[in-house]
Amino acid sequence: MTTISSDVIRGYNDTFILYLLLDRPSYGYEISRMIRSLSEGKYVIKETTLYSAFTRMEKNGFITSFSQNAENGKRRTYYSITEAGREYYKEKCEEWNVTKDVVENFISPMGTCALPAGSGR
To answer: What is the pTM of this model?
Structure first.
């Protein structure tokens, strides 16, 4: 199975995290697990990448954090999306649609990356 390079997807980590927070607060491990699950294992976010994103988004006012005891009694840090985060999420979705349109101009209609006939490349 082909996996996605972290270099390719880096700009959309915030979008993934915010998406997962749209309906309810969550904590790091659960968010990481959901990203892996929703990507069908094609993308696994590194722990350092995830927590850097939390720090950056909290600093920018897109999420807030709070501590709470989990069912097993362990203290966890939960993250919740803010109104500014919802707006940022919408912007990133619009950006993705433009990005996808541009990239698709360079992928053949059959979804392969074949070189155009006579390109000499």
So the answer is: 0.82
